[in-house]
Write a sequence for this structure.
């Protein structure tokens, strides 16, 4: 993920945005997120049907009631570490980063265990609690508790080399382990690998088609409202990582590109993210400014920056076009469900 300290994904690690205890000024209040029912309706019946959650453990049929179903044969996937043989229908999956969490849940599979970024204490709330309630936390992403993983008896582990490349051998002793190279900008290609490993290739195709249709609808809506040329700024306050701007080669940057919106000059670069010195806040300006916080807002510098003259002088702030967004969605979602929500929020923020 993004630099936290990892990156291609620099700081795309992180928590739900911790909002200040006091209400933000009017210009900083987010637009309400689209209702989940409306979102699910928009995904299309084909995708939802393809992704009906798999039952975790079926009791064996009683003797005399017919033969047991033939198990799916093993599958070989070409991971970043080379070919990996995985079960044809993995039932006990452990995910060690936020991108594979989104992939598994999107494809209808509830992991038995998951690792979250260190500053996160709960699962992303763009997923209903009913989908995440049974997932056991196995420690921070990048430093998972291997004994906790072992006790879950996984038959498949998913992560990426940036997070877990240095413990690949240890993880492989626990279960077949499929790693992508990194997370963030290549999320669409990574999703295809996750789908192969999870045995959900058909479901993946349905979700890809649904997302492409959704992105096209947003493009048309923005064009009809004459908003396509608006430049959208992405700012992330990171505890221990400063103020960061996000370029085109990041997860949120690719979603904005799919919506065909513009980017401020400083962020219209083939980078994932980079630190912004506090005395150069002007580079964070845009027609629309979206910002989040990873970690504590005081220690991340969010509260101090929002109260500073430099921030208050930004055109987006003066025009009441600066909005806080959910960090776990916009910078950690890294998958098709997260991206679909982001498209809807983007359209609402822009007023199309």
């Amino acid at each position: 993920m993004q630099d936290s300290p990892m990156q291609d994904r620099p700081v795309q690690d992180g928590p739900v945005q911790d909002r200040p205890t006091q209400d933000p000024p009017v210009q900083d209040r987010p637009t309400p997120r689209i209702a989940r029912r409306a979102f699910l309706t928009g995904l299309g019946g084909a995708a939802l049907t393809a992704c009906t959650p798999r039952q975790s453990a079926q009791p064996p049929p009683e003797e005399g009631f017919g033969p047991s179903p033939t198990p799916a044969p093993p599958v070989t996937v070409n991971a970043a570490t080379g070919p990996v043989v995985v079960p044809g229908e993995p039932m006990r999956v452990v995910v060690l980063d936020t991108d594979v969490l989104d992939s598994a849940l999107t494809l209808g599979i509830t992991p038995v265990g998951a690792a979250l970024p260190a500053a996160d204490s709960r699962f992303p709330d763009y997923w209903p609690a009913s989908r995440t309630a049974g997932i056991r936390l196995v420690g921070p992403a990048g430093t998972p508790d291997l004994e906790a993983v072992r006790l879950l008896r996984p038959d498949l582990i998913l992560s990426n080399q940036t997070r877990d490349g240095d413990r690949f051998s240890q993880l492989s002793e626990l279960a077949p382990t499929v790693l992508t190279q990194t997370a963030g900008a290549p999320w669409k290609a990574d999703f295809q690998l996750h789908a192969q490993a999870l045995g959900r290739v058909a479901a993946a195709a349905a979700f890809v088609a649904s997302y492409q249709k959704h992105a096209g609808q947003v493009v048309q809506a923005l064009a009809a409202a004459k908003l396509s040329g608006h430049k959208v700024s992405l700012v992330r306050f990171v505890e221990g990582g400063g103020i960061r701007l996000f370029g085109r080669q990041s997860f949120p940057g690719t979603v904005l590109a799919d919506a065909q919106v513009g980017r401020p000059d400083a962020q219209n670069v083939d980078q994932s993210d980079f630190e912004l010195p506090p005395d150069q806040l002007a580079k964070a300006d845009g027609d629309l400014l979206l910002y989040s916080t990873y970690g504590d807002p005081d220690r991340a510098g969010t509260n101090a920056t929002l109260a500073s003259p430099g921030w208050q002088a930004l055109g987006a702030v003066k025009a009441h076009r600066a909005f806080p967004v959910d960090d776990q969605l916009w910078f950690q979602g890294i998958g098709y469900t997260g991206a679909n929500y982001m498209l809807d929020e983007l359209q609402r923020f822009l007023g199309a």
